[in-house]
Amino acid sequence: MARAATTTDAFNAVAEPRRREILDALAGGELAVGDLTELLGLAQPQVSKHLRVLREVGLVDVRDDGRRRLYRVNAAPLREVHAWVGRYERLWNERFDLMDDVLDELTETEAETETRGGD
Amino acid sequence: MARAATTTDAFNAVAEPRRREILDALAGGELAVGDLTELLGLAQPQVSKHLRVLREVGLVDVRDDGRRRLYRVNAAPLREVHAWVGRYERLWNERFDLMDDVLDELTETEAETETRGGD
DNA sequence: TTGACACATTCCCATATGGGTATATGTTTG
DNA sequence: CAAACATATACCCATATGGGAATGTGTCAA
Fold first, then answer.
1. B43 touching chain A per CB within 8 A
2. Rg of the Cα trace of chain B?
């Protein structure tokens, strides 16, 4: 099997930096494809393709406006991502507590070393 | 260019469900590779390869214990993910508020419709 | 030292990717 | 209608993937 499709879920869709940029841009409100190509400095077909992926996982909605298509964010699929990552919030805090302990120990060790006159 | 490497960052590393399972398993504490293969029902080489990816993005640390290798979570790299997704929390809530509005409107419409005696 | 054990690495392969470029579809204007 | 504009799709390609299977590396026991 190969890597899971980018359209599998929000996790995969959002792993691509360009798609995160698109969502960030759309966070301010509806934008047309042309606006996005300009903002991202990316060619139009690529933008359209990224938007397709985002649409397929439900991260954006489209609306027709004459010959343009206005895209807007639908953050709902990000809830799952947020929920999963959120479960680790406690862990990375603990991690930093541990880090502090280690740093303290290092400081003590250095103090001892200096007392002994170096290695 | 092809898709970004899974070892590029936590976003990409965590897009793979198996790797999320591994992290979930390790959330309870240190585990050896063998424990993980059993828990995930995945072959040992595959587990080792997933662990390599997780190591390369700093999501796990290793420790030697005789002929086994104990892995533990290091959630720090998930902070960035959490931070990015977190910016959309307000948006998906707004989204649900809008949904509520829509539902209200629908209810009203139905009420009218019933008053008028159906469609 | 040999064998058993635990894990890492290598090779093979079908697959989807993302960018580039060209072209199709659809809409507005003249 | 044709031309211009906005967007979507199709195609080509180098690349990394993740699983399967085989093998390499290092550690413990007899």
1. no
2. 23
